[in-house]
Amino acid sequence: MGLNLTQKIIKEHLVSGKMKTGEEISIRIDQTLTQDSTGTMAYLQFEAMNIPRVKTKKSVAYIDHNTLQSGFENADDHEYIRSVALSKGITVSRPGNGICHQVHLERFGAPGMTLLGSDSHTPTGGGLGMLAIGAGGLDVAVAMGGGAYFLNMPEVIEVRLRGKLRPLCAAKDVILKVLSILTVKGGVGRVVEYTGEGVKNLTVPERATITNMGAELGATASVFPADAVTKAFLKAEGRETDFRPLKADASAKYARTVELDLSGLEPLAALPHSPDNVKAVRDVQSVKVDQVCIGSCTNSSFLDMMRAAALLKGRRIAPGVSFTVSPGSRQVLTALARNGALAAILDGGARILECACGPCIGMGQSPRSDAVSVRSFNRNFYGRSGTKSAEVYLTSVETAVACAVAGKIADPRDVFDATENGVLAGWEKIGKISKFEINDNLIADPREYSDVQITRGPNIQPFPVNTALAGIVEGRTLIVLPDNITTDHIMPSDSKLLPYRSNIPYLSEYCLTPVDPEFPKRAKAENGGFIVAGENYGQGSSREHAALVPLYLKIKAVIAKSFARIHMDNLINNGILPLIFEDPADYSRIAKGDELRIASAPGQVKSGRVKIENVTAGYAFAAAILAPDRKREMLVAGGLLNFAKLKTEN
Ligand code: MIC
Ligand code: SF4
Questions:
Q1: How far is 222 from 83, CA to CA, in rounded Å?
Q2: Is 101 in contact with 204 (CB distance < 8 Å)?
Q3: I need a labelling partner for 286 at 20 to 30 A (CA). Which of 16, 236, 342, 532 fits?
Q4: Ligand 1 centre from 377 Cα, in Å?
């Protein structure tokens, strides 16, 4: 039987296990990436493993999230990351060089390779034909040390593309359409593979927009074939030798096929507060807009910026709109500066921000109270912009510019007249480039540094490590949460909190506060306890802090209807039990404050089926741990580091 592309890459990297859907396998990791807001923790964990140098083909430490430096904290993190990375053989992409996923596409990604990154949008690399997976910092630390990455063999879904996007309809509309079909939990345990004759009509940056937002589907990865378009992109980056052609076999099988006609797509928007709350832009038009932001790892490529510049040429944004543009990398910004497009963007009324994540993670540009903000980003979770009352819409760059010009939500086809200034006549040529100017002077190569001293400023605090699972696990139900709780709810991140990513005690004061401001106080007063949740608990960011902070607050278990993949792994790696209601109806029987008890916990956890007594209400119910033997043993040991220690001792 023929193999699909996902299976081919996995087969080439398989270390253990059988490639049977749902079974645990482990794969060799060629490349890793970290960014600063998860990186500090990942490197502290890597240091705790006592491995002198990375064993991957390429590991890169990006600094792109916390670049405001409003106090010494960010700068302490940056210097720690720079020094520890260079001392361990890791390449450093310095602040201002760009957003990790954009720079990785430009400078390091390669077809057929595996990439593990401590950021949920690592799958962006799938646009180049890599199997790129987001994970928690501990898993990335293990991979840097040469350890295999364990995952369940994913089911592979095919999205078969045909036709060609019409002008002003964009790759963003493709992924928003897929999100409207599959939803934010439709990708859990799955890889989404793009196939069909329509693939050749999408450039690498467009493919990367699509694979980037596969994270919003909850997918393990998304992948495109590597073809002539990929080769041309790598050639323009001066990296043609990194190319190898890759595609699925003609007889490849998929668990499900979604057919999509690119020429039939129209501009779409994800409405507040979920990336799968998708509607046609024309159905929501006329809503007054206060802020428009272009950028983020989803839509900040040279192509995106050139399209924005072309649409803005000779126009001005509407009065009352604040319009920000963050190019994805220094390479993109330099190219815009050289060819004059930057001037068109400035003339249009844009505020140019640094090549960094910026407003996407609430690092500045929080909109005013009750504002409507239209963003070319990937997440519009409640409160993520830094303004709780703001309504954030996610759209393509084209739609975002149309909104900025019109001052209200508008379909770009209604704003940009096809005949006016000829933009649309030459649409397909915009942003095509055969050679980028390469300037890696903000990339530090570890081979050029020796004897680097690791610098630890006062903001670098030790991370909590769990202890072995107790015989009896008991405590109160501290909170009962609805479906789709994100890691932004569990551990919010904005310009005030992001500087404390290496200070877990400080962050613990904010755990789950977007849903319940009293939660941290209650958790401390009760000396820990249980969290109860609905479906897809922990979707979104890969931040391990959403497990480390609950660990610090002595949360012993989360009982949910289902979990998002990365968060469940983070809980296991930190020894917090991820329990899944065997009968989802039991969810509504638990009330806040109920005393829960798990007797003979180690034995039950090892078996994968746990009986939980609700001591207050006087009944018992069953929960499952849907993780392989190795991970259940890890839970009994008290997390990955303790488990690894036990293994080396025995
Ligand atoms: C995000 O987009 O939420 C982040 C910030 O990039 C996170 C990582 C983090 O929380 O540090 C992610 O996507 O994993
Ligand atoms: Fe940065 Fe936003 Fe991308 Fe996360 S989603 S990596 S915060 S740009």
A1: 33
A2: no
A3: 342
A4: 12
Q: Which atom of ligand 1 is nearest to the CA of 491?
A: 10
pLDDT value of position 420 = 52
Cα–Cα distance between 537 and 548 in angstroms, integer?
16
Let me know: does 134 contact 117? Beta carbons within 8 Å. yes
Contact 278, 397 (CB under 8 A): no
Is 64 among the catalytic positions?
A: yes
Query: Rounded to whole angstroms, how far apart are CA atoms 571 and 508?
Result: 16
CA of 102 to the centre of ligand 2 (A): 10
At 418 the pLDDT is: 58
Residue 613, beta-bridge partner list: 597, 620
Q: β-pairing, 351-352 with 322-325? A: parallel
Show the low-confidence residues of the chain (pLDDT under 50).
none
Q: Is the CB of 119 under 6 A from ligand 1?
A: yes
Spell 76-104 as b/e; 16+ CB within 10 A means b.
Answer: bbbbbbbbbbbbbbbbbbbbebbbbbbbb
Residues 6+ apart with CB under 8 A from 399: 170, 172, 267, 269, 281, 374, 410, 411, 412
CA distance 114 to 32: 8
Decide if 298 contacts 377 (C-beta within 8 A).
yes
For 388, other C-beta atoms within 10 Å of its C-beta total 12
Question: H/E/C letters for each residue in 428-456?
Answer: HHCCCCCCCCCCCCCEECHHHCCCCCCCC
pTM: 0.97
Confirm if 208 and 176 have CB atoms less than 8 A apart: no
Phi, psi of 394 (to 5 degrees): -105, 130
Element (H, E) at 278: strand 278-280
Beta carbon of 74 within 6 Å of any ligand 1 atom: no
Which atom of ligand 2 lies closest to the CA of 379? 5
122: Cβ below 6 Å to ligand 1?
no
pLDDT in the model for residue 635 = 98
Structure-derived torsion over alpha carbons of residues 489, 490, 493, 499, reported in degrees to the nearest 10: 160
List Cβ neighbours of 288 (8 Å cut-off, separation of 6 or more). 372, 407, 408
Structure tokens at 354: 């640094």
Contact residues for 146 (Cβ-Cβ < 8 A; gap 6+): 51, 54, 55, 56
Residue 161, SS3? strand
**Torsion from C-alpha of 409, 410, 412, 418, nearest 10 degrees:** -150
Q: Quick one: tokens of 544?
A: 């391990």
- Enclosing H/E stretch for 279: strand 278-280
For ligand 2, the distance from its centroid to the CA atom of residue 273, given in whole angstroms, is: 17
What single-letter amino acid sits at 71? Answer: G
The string of DSSP codes covering 120-156 is TTGGGGGGGT-EEEE--HHHHHHHHTTPPEEEEPPEE
Phi (first) and psi of residue 3, to 5 degrees: -110, 145
Q: Would you call 101 a catalytic residue per the annotation?
A: no
